[in-house]
Automatic annotation (TrEMBL):
Pfam families: PapC_C, Usher. InterPro entries: Fimb_usher, FimD_plug_dom, PapC-like_C, PapC-like_C_sf. This is Putative fimbrial outer membrane usher protein. One of its GO terms (biological process) is pilus assembly. Residues 72-134 form the PapC-like C-terminal domain. One of its GO terms (molecular function) is fimbrial usher porin activity. It comes from Enterobacter cloacae. One of its GO terms (cellular component) is cell outer membrane. Gene3D superfamilies: 2.60.40.2070, Outer membrane usher protein FimD, plug domain. PANTHER family: FIMBRIAL USHER PROTEIN (PTHR30451:SF8), OUTER MEMBRANE USHER PROTEIN (PTHR30451).
Length: 149
């Protein structure tokens, strides 16, 4: 990943470490992640740092990133009608995950193939049934069709 510095971009190594040369001594230097250089499945929680270092000093900063798998589900019920807008999606423990923002649409962050999800409707709940293809880390999200059975 690229990191913007006062003297231009530097790149991290395979362990995610980088050296930022020539910070301005005794004054604030801005260092930030170039988010365009990240894979589509990576989120950054703190992509900006203001560092102050004395002459010849080393400053240490850790950027926090998170790798996620996002999925946009196109969900229909067993009868072929779309799952209604506003339906809550919960996990196996009944914990709220998200809601359907539109008829037949559910957006999920950080999904795994082993998760079982349910849609809670007025008439009860149904199990979201879908197959995750092999993950593509270059994509921000994947679009998948599924059923609520």
């Amino acid at each position: 990943m690229a990191i913007g510095t006062p003297r231009g971009n530097v790149w991290t190594d395979k362990w995610g470490r980088a050296v930022v040369p020539a910070l301005t001594p005794f004054s604030e230097s801005t260092v930030e992640i170039d988010t365009q250089s990240l894979p589509g499945n990576v989120d950054v929680s703190n992509g900006h740092a203001s560092l102050k270092a004395s002459h010849g000093a080393f400053a240490h900063w850790k950027f926090t990133t998170l790798s996620q798998r996002r999925v946009l589900l196109n969900i229909t019920r067993a009868d072929g009608t779309p799952l209604p807008k506003g339906v809550s999606v919960v996990n196996g423990k009944g914990e709220y995950i998200t809601s359907a923002p539109e008829d037949g649409i559910i957006f999920l962050n950080d999904i795994s193939a082993s998760q079982t999800l349910y849609a809670k409707q007025d008439t009860g709940r149904c199990t979201l049934s879908f197959t995750l293809p092999e993950a593509d880390p270059t994509q921000f999200y994947e679009e998948i069709n599924g059923k609520c059975l």
